[in-house]
Amino acid sequence: MLRNYFKIAFRNLLRNKVYSTINIVGLAIGVASCILIFLYVKDELSYENHFSKADRIVRVAGEVIFEGHQDAFSVTPPPLYDAVREFSGVESVTQFFQAGKQTVWYQDQSFTEDKLLFADSAFFRVFDYAFVAGNPATALSTPNAIVLTEELAQKYFGGAAQAMGQVLRFSKDSYTVTGVYRDQGHSHIAASGLLSRLTVDSQTPEDVRNNQWFNLNRYTYALLPDPQHIPDFQKQLDVLTEAHVNPWIKENRLSAHVKYIAQPLKSIHFDTRYGGDGLSPKGNISYVYIFGAVAVFLLLIACINYMNLATARSAKRAKEVGLRKVVGADRSQIIWQFIGESVLLTLIAVLLALALVQIFIPNFNTLTDKNFTSDFFMHWEFLSVVLAIVLFVGIVAGSYPAFFLSGFKPADVLKSDKHPKGGSATLRRALVVLQFSISLIMIIGTIVVFMQMHFLKNSDLGFKKEQVMVIDIPSGDSTLVQHLPLIKQKLEQHPKVLQTSNTLSIPAEGLSRTLMLMEQDGEMVEKTMDAIAVDHDFIPVLGIQMQAGRNFSPNIKTDERSGIIINEAAAKWLGWADPLGKKVITGNEEIADNSARVIGVVKDFHITSLHSEVQPLAIFLVPQSAGYLLARLAPEDQAATIQFIQEQWRTFDPEHPMEYFFMDEFFDKQYRAEEKMLTVFGYFAGLTILIACLGLFGLASFTAEQRTKEIGIRKVLGSSVSDIVLLLSKDFALLVLLAIALASPIAWYGMRQWLQDFAYRVDLSWWIFAIAGFAALAIALLTVSLQAVKAALLDPVKALRT
Amino acid sequence: MNKEELVIETQNLQKKYITDTVETTALAGVDLSIKRGEFVAIMGPSGCGKSTLLNILGMLDSPSSGVFKFLGQDISNATERQRAKLRKHNLGFVFQSFNLIDELTVEENIALPLAYLGVSKAETNKRVQEAMERMGIAHRRNHFPQQLSGGQQQRVAIARATVSNPALILADEPTGNLDSVHGREVMAMLAELNESGTTVVMVTHSPSDAEYAHRIVNLFDGQIVTENLNVKRHAAELL
């Protein structure tokens, strides 16, 4: 019997090529998207899974309430290490911090490494990385030891075995390789190597290590006996802050309140609340949701095509159903036959989908910043997901046609002059409306995201980010910093280098909040605000406008210690009608030297992305710093100019490779998440509309076929081709209009939510919806009219004879 | 075999079709008994209820009221599943428009009832072969229905109706779509089947086809108006 079903299914597929193609292609696209998205979601959810103790590791994060303003940090003070070690029910504690950008020498080669951590010997007790060489228990228990990932050992020494015992030179110290481990899975700790923390601890003052509770620079992790201990651990943290940390802060006259939070390891990847979390890029759980929803939608639309086409052409299968019943099939047998048929079709679609996945994996990798390969094809987990998709889609898509077709009464369908109507037209229409609503939501989403991106990139930021080259000055090289005025001079001699600036801070970089005393109604009031340190040329190089007062001047020596520039937002926030000359005290108020005066006010400029409003800002003068060198270049011949700058730079710093980037690219990186969203929306909006149109094409052709006789009669009675096209297209146009009415409010609501993330955003004007609706309508009508014209041109004599 | 056993017995069989506005009576109280081995022809003008009656007898449709006994068992209120079971074990159908499955070959079409009966593969092959030979279509076994003439298609349909050795064959205008030569061929086959013991009930417009039956039932406006014994056929049998 099964063979019989398959035979019929196969012969039906071959006989109805258009119908089969529409279904198989639609389903294949849906399934391929599902597979790719499954890979993405699985990968995103796999963080920390390779640590066998992952579910009982917690990170201590801190919330600081400062002037009613709450900040959250993933970094904690050094003394927390000893304090947590005193806790009951803690198996192990490890504390580490980022080494920053380091230049590493081996023999005569040098490399820049920025993913190294200073860690203690407990690190490998908590995080059980697999060691390729060396002993995890002792690898970091001596100063000047370094443990490398297999990758880094390969890069420097050509293998793990060769690396052991070798010495790597850093600018301050040298380190001996004591171990090599394999970094086999995703972790938020994306380190390429670990340096023994003992090396630097011995150089850190004891007071900082033991008593400074407001120095937030280290990551602290604890290993608990089991996950149930987390609440107890949290209680001990609360006791610590109330009994010790907050009293200490008060004693040191800081008006802050601290709370420590035990954060389960596995939750870290998606938790974006905590600042200073620079270990690895954060995951975005809303992407996981958006991708997931898109996958389900695509598959749903493809399933709807199958259901619609299967019921529409049910008239053709009715006789077979009737006959099978006559010779003794009962209803359940017919149901299983049709479900089997859709499972078979899905199976073919899935094979095609696997080919599509193979082809599109590289594009998908770019889109998601991942590194998927097709190795997973033979993995049991993957195969079982594919099997689940086949069965799920086969049964979901097949069930409605199966129940519908199996309900035919043989007595009705076996009469040659009687044909059953092709299923419930109302349901089919409702499903088409659903398909087009989903497509429209995607189209509207794409337009809105595109417009917002255009807006973000082209808004007036209050400074000119274009044609500004930024050179990263390596830290720890004091001679280079001393030479900076000379370097600036040399560079500016080139006609295409318009102006340069040496600055500690640049826009789009993390800002630090500084505590200051500011004059308000004749009294000095404690305030915190964002602060940046720049040289004399920063404001002109970036084209920032002065609103009042003046820029820092190299001729006025007092500017360096007692000059301060604020922005308009700061003046407004402080209630200063005339800010010039107002008194500001930074640092410790007992040192009178630290008092400064406001010498200028700049017009507001966006130092951070347009996600947030312009915040009050204080600008200090630091004429020479190991931050960045900015160079405004003339737009023409930039390659030659850059080469000139590189040559000049090398004469001053032959040791480090010169690292540079452009201000506009750096600033726009802040919109990477949105840019990705735009690509995702763009691709999938295209796919949803494509699959929906495939379905519409199929439906239109069946409608035309069903109405052949009617069209023939109309033509005999004098109807023109355009009348017929209109007749056939009108119904579908109505469905799309209904979809527009349905989709618009949903899309409006969703996109309004999305735009809430931005302090500066585009308006959701009516014409966005009009454009999307018009586009959908045009595509749908084009699809339908192809069929309609074909039907209308048919010879009426032929049409009436059948 | 007990010749007097009743295959079909109906009492006051009624069928009404009710739509939103109109109630149409298709059968207005039919009393009919058919004995095992009989060949009965049902005749009457279009719309008299012939096909409705045949569909109810074939358990493809259920009566609105009245009693319908099949092999002595009352099935007026049987479920769809019970009727499907009775159908596949006891009935064979032949239609005016042949109703072969276009996607299956001659051989596969004939084998279909056996598949639903769960007959083994070897047994199926044997019985299909016999049926094809009996109908003279064995050389066409791998052809699809559209590749055959009308007469050949109807022979395939008869082969399919008889392959499971049903007690009763229901034929609905079996010669309606055939020319006279092929029509006579088909009638001869039905008569032959009847002679070998199968009960046949046939709906027809054609008086010449009706000549093959033992008994002719005339239906008018949903009621039996006359029942005539076919003297010729009885005489032939008595000889």
From TrEMBL, chain A:
<dbReference type="GO" id="GO:0005886">
    <property type="term" value="C:plasma membrane"/>
</dbReference>
<feature type="domain" description="MacB-like periplasmic core">
    <location>
        <begin position="493"/>
        <end position="641"/>
    </location>
</feature>
<keyword id="KW-0472">Membrane</keyword>
<protein>
    <submittedName>
        <fullName>Putative ABC transport system permease protein</fullName>
    </submittedName>
</protein>
<keyword id="KW-0812">Transmembrane</keyword>
<feature type="transmembrane region" description="Helical">
    <location>
        <begin position="764"/>
        <end position="784"/>
    </location>
</feature>
<feature type="domain" description="ABC3 transporter permease C-terminal">
    <location>
        <begin position="293"/>
        <end position="407"/>
    </location>
</feature>
<feature type="transmembrane region" description="Helical">
    <location>
        <begin position="680"/>
        <end position="703"/>
    </location>
</feature>
<dbReference type="InterPro" id="IPR050250">
    <property type="entry name" value="Macrolide_Exporter_MacB"/>
</dbReference>
<feature type="transmembrane region" description="Helical">
    <location>
        <begin position="21"/>
        <end position="41"/>
    </location>
</feature>
<feature type="transmembrane region" description="Helical">
    <location>
        <begin position="382"/>
        <end position="408"/>
    </location>
</feature>
<feature type="transmembrane region" description="Helical">
    <location>
        <begin position="334"/>
        <end position="362"/>
    </location>
</feature>
<feature type="domain" description="MacB-like periplasmic core">
    <location>
        <begin position="20"/>
        <end position="238"/>
    </location>
</feature>
<keyword id="KW-1003">Cell membrane</keyword>
<feature type="domain" description="ABC3 transporter permease C-terminal">
    <location>
        <begin position="684"/>
        <end position="791"/>
    </location>
</feature>
<keyword id="KW-1133">Transmembrane helix</keyword>
<feature type="transmembrane region" description="Helical">
    <location>
        <begin position="287"/>
        <end position="309"/>
    </location>
</feature>
<feature type="transmembrane region" description="Helical">
    <location>
        <begin position="724"/>
        <end position="744"/>
    </location>
</feature>
<dbReference type="GO" id="GO:0022857">
    <property type="term" value="F:transmembrane transporter activity"/>
</dbReference>
<dbReference type="InterPro" id="IPR003838">
    <property type="entry name" value="ABC3_permease_C"/>
</dbReference>
<dbReference type="Pfam" id="PF12704">
    <property type="entry name" value="MacB_PCD"/>
</dbReference>
<dbReference type="Pfam" id="PF02687">
    <property type="entry name" value="FtsX"/>
</dbReference>
Automatic annotation (TrEMBL), chain B:
<dbReference type="GO" id="GO:0005524">
    <property type="term" value="F:ATP binding"/>
</dbReference>
<dbReference type="InterPro" id="IPR003593">
    <property type="entry name" value="AAA+_ATPase"/>
</dbReference>
<dbReference type="InterPro" id="IPR017871">
    <property type="entry name" value="ABC_transporter-like_CS"/>
</dbReference>
<comment type="similarity">
    <text>Belongs to the ABC transporter superfamily. Macrolide exporter (TC 3.A.1.122) family.</text>
</comment>
<dbReference type="GO" id="GO:0022857">
    <property type="term" value="F:transmembrane transporter activity"/>
</dbReference>
<dbReference type="GO" id="GO:0005886">
    <property type="term" value="C:plasma membrane"/>
</dbReference>
<keyword id="KW-0547">Nucleotide-binding</keyword>
<keyword id="KW-0067">ATP-binding</keyword>
<protein>
    <submittedName>
        <fullName>Putative ABC transport system ATP-binding protein</fullName>
    </submittedName>
</protein>
<dbReference type="InterPro" id="IPR027417">
    <property type="entry name" value="P-loop_NTPase"/>
</dbReference>
<dbReference type="InterPro" id="IPR003439">
    <property type="entry name" value="ABC_transporter-like_ATP-bd"/>
</dbReference>
<dbReference type="Pfam" id="PF00005">
    <property type="entry name" value="ABC_tran"/>
</dbReference>
<keyword id="KW-0813">Transport</keyword>
<dbReference type="InterPro" id="IPR015854">
    <property type="entry name" value="ABC_transpr_LolD-like"/>
</dbReference>
<feature type="domain" description="ABC transporter">
    <location>
        <begin position="8"/>
        <end position="238"/>
    </location>
</feature>
<dbReference type="InterPro" id="IPR017911">
    <property type="entry name" value="MacB-like_ATP-bd"/>
</dbReference>
<dbReference type="GO" id="GO:0016887">
    <property type="term" value="F:ATP hydrolysis activity"/>
</dbReference>
<dbReference type="GO" id="GO:0098796">
    <property type="term" value="C:membrane protein complex"/>
</dbReference>
